[in-house]
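Box 3.1 A note on notation
Throughout this textbook, protein chains are presented in two layers. The first layer is the amino acid sequence; the second is a token string describing backbone geometry. Keep the layers aligned when reading.
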Amino acid sequence: MIIACLIILLAVAIYLYYLPVFGGEMSGKRLIRMKQSPHYKNGKFQNLSFTPSIAEGFTMRGVLWDFITDRTENKSPKSPITTKKTNLKERAKNENFLVWMGHSSYYFQVDGQRFLVDPVFSGNASPVPGTTRAFAGTDIYQADDFLEIDYLIISHDHYDHLDYKTVKSLKPKIKKVICGLGVGSHFERWGFEEDRMIELDWYDDSEFAAGFRITSTPARHF
């Protein structure tokens, strides 16, 4: 009985692992380029300065206990957040403006170019439905609200920055994707052609349009 349950759990885990929401595996030329990066060591990218997963002075057990027993009040809004939705389709392409869309999602236009950064419009920043929900009032934009997007910029591939459902719905409107080295593997699995992607290692830069240059700078994240 126990063995049968373990086999079932293993089968479910394997099935879930290969769902498209989890993106693609790094391989081929992409993996070779990653391994050639000075920031890639021992099978993964490394921070430039010491960055422990658990802050010094804390333990995993203690962090989990604090999370379970925390009774802090007012951690979440008690009513929908007041927002003002901009009709992006009515704005001229030569207008320069920026719209914040919650967390790290924002849209901006500069000198006739349209940029969208870290869009998460599914209302769910997790591969597990119903978890890590957006605060009420912050998920007012959808793919249909956008015209053509010249450049989709993805800072990193955590689920609250790179959302499978959002990317798939925006795909026909996206001309180019700019992302970190290795992140292109997810877009490749989701049907994006190689020539639609610009992958940058730290300190890389790219002059991707007349008068436009983007530079990938180091950052730390836990």
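The mean pLDDT is 89. The beta strands are 40-41, 44-45, 97-100, 106-110, 113-117, 149-154, 174-180, 197-200, 205-209, 212-215.
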